[in-house]
């Protein structure tokens, strides 16, 4: 099982959480689809509930706060969240939630990039973010799907130092992005999303059987947006949970 106990490099996707209007329904849904087990951190932390794989945290689910929409937030690691928030504002983004401390865990902010996609910024202290990755139930990939891909690439290069690489066979505006030479996700246009869909980050969770996971989506009250499809990068599908949050399922990278 690929695990991590040290801080994620700055600019790397390091965590994802979901805000939901019905926590018990959400844990039942994601438990069936992704095999997660759950640990409620308690009333002090607003019942922020860790989703775990083999006893290690992979993501979290929490009740929506007043005025907060339901949906997922992908977090990018930072060594200095205040400095990163300043760069966000200087390069065409918006700081939606100013930096604040999460007691004993770290410091965070929430921002919008230059094309309007929301993301979190996480500076670890007691919690690094994801402790397991590239394993069934955990993050395996992330896409930034942007209404203005060029503006998005310029923004993330300036704020996080991302560098980009072409993907043979992918749309012309789709690239991988890397931190210190290591590819950590993808970035591009809206890739066929319905007209009017805002810019967003799409998390991909690995599963051992994409078809079975999509069947669990349907039986659990979610919606399958893209049926299981074989691609050069593995078998994938896209779905929404019962509350409308979109996520992708990925069967793992094929053998070289």
Automatic annotation (TrEMBL):
PROSITE patterns cross-referenced by the UniProt entry: VOC (PS51819)
Short name of any one Pfam family annotated for the protein: Glyoxalase
VOC domain residues: 12-124
Source organism superkingdom: Bacteria
SUPFAM superfamilies linked to this entry: Glyoxalase/Bleomycin resistance protein/Dihydroxybiphenyl dioxygenase
PANTHER family the UniProt entry points to: CONSERVED PROTEIN, GLYOXALASE-RELATED
Protein name: VOC domain-containing protein
Organism field: Pseudonocardia hydrocarbonoxydans
């Amino acid at each position: 099982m690929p695990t991590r106990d040290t801080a994620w490099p700055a600019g790397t996707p390091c965590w994802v959480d979901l805000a939901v209007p019905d926590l018990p329904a959400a844990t039942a849904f994601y438990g069936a689809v992704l095999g997660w087990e759950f640990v409620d951190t308690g009333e002090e932390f607003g019942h922020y509930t860790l989703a775990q794989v083999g006893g290690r945290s992979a993501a979290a689910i929490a009740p929506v706060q007043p005025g907060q929409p339901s949906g997922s937030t992908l977090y990018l690691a930072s060594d200095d969240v205040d400095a990163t928030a300043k760069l966000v504002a200087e390069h065409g983004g918006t700081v939606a939630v100013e930096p604040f401390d999460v007691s004993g865990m770290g410091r965070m902010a929430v921002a919008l990039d230059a094309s309007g996609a929301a993301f979190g910024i996480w500076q670890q202290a007691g919690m690094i973010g994801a402790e397991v990755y590239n394993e069934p139930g955990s993050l395996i990939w992330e896409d930034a799907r942007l209404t203005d891909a060029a503006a998005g690439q310029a923004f993330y290069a300036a704020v996080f130092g991302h560098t980009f690489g072409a993907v043979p066979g992918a749309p012309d505006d789709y690239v991988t992005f890397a931190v210190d030479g290591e590819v950590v996700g993808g970035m591009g246009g809206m890739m066929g999303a319905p007209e009017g869909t805002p810019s967003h980050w799409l998390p991909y969770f690995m599963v051992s059987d994409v078809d079975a996971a999509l069947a669990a989506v349907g039986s659990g009250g979610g919606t399958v947006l893209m049926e299981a499809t074989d691609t050069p990068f593995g078998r994938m599908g896209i779905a929404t949970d019962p509350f409308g949050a979109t996520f992708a399922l990925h069967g793992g990278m094929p053998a070289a």
